[in-house]
Amino acid sequence: MEFSKEQGRFYLEDQGETVAEITFTQPNDEFFIIDHTFVDDKLRGQGVANQLVKAVVDKARADQKTIIPLCPFAKGQFERIPEYADVWRK
């Protein structure tokens, strides 16, 4: 799935409406903070939220940053997926 991106956000739109997004901040040069994940009910169960978290993880790796997952969904993903350990700032 190809997400649109802008500063601090990956998202998916359907007919001009945001139907999925993840937002993150960059308080300094070292890390991102994931603060929000949203997926519209019509997309639930398709792994979209997982893909959004992975998009931020991939960006962190590319930018050599770590991530603090404050969003409960993102934090759960970090706890369940051992491959995210390299970017998880605990």
Provide structural commentary.
- With 90 residues, the protein is of the alpha+beta class.
- Helix content is 28%, strand content 34%.
- It has two helices and five strands, in the order ββββαβα.
- Strands 1-2-3-4-5 form a five-stranded mixed β-sheet.
- A hairpin with a 2-residue loop joins strand 2 and strand 3.
- The chain is globular.
- The mean pLDDT is 97.
Strand order of the largest sheet: 1-2-3-4-5
The portion of residues assigned to helices is 25-40%
Morphology call: globular
Tell me how many strands there are: 5
Number of helices: 2
Order of helices and strands: EEEEHEH
| Gap between N and C termini | 29 Å
Report the uncertain regions.
Answer: none
Into which percentage range does the β-strand content fall? Answer: 25-35%
Cα gyration radius (Å) = 12 Å
Q: Describe the largest sheet.
A: 5 strands, mixed
Helix-strand makeup class:
alpha+beta
Mean pLDDT across residues: 97
Features:
90 residues; alpha+beta; 5-stranded mixed sheet; 2 helices; globular
Question: Strands, helices and their partners?
Answer:
Blueprint: E1 4-6, E2 9-14, E3 17-25, E4 31-39, H1 48-63, E5 66-69, H2 72-80
Parallel strand pairs: 4-5
Antiparallel strand pairs: 1-2, 2-3, 3-4
Characterize this entry briefly.
The chain is α+β, with helices and mostly antiparallel strands. The chain has helices at residues 48-63, 72-80, and strands at 4-6, 9-14, 17-25, 31-39, 66-69.
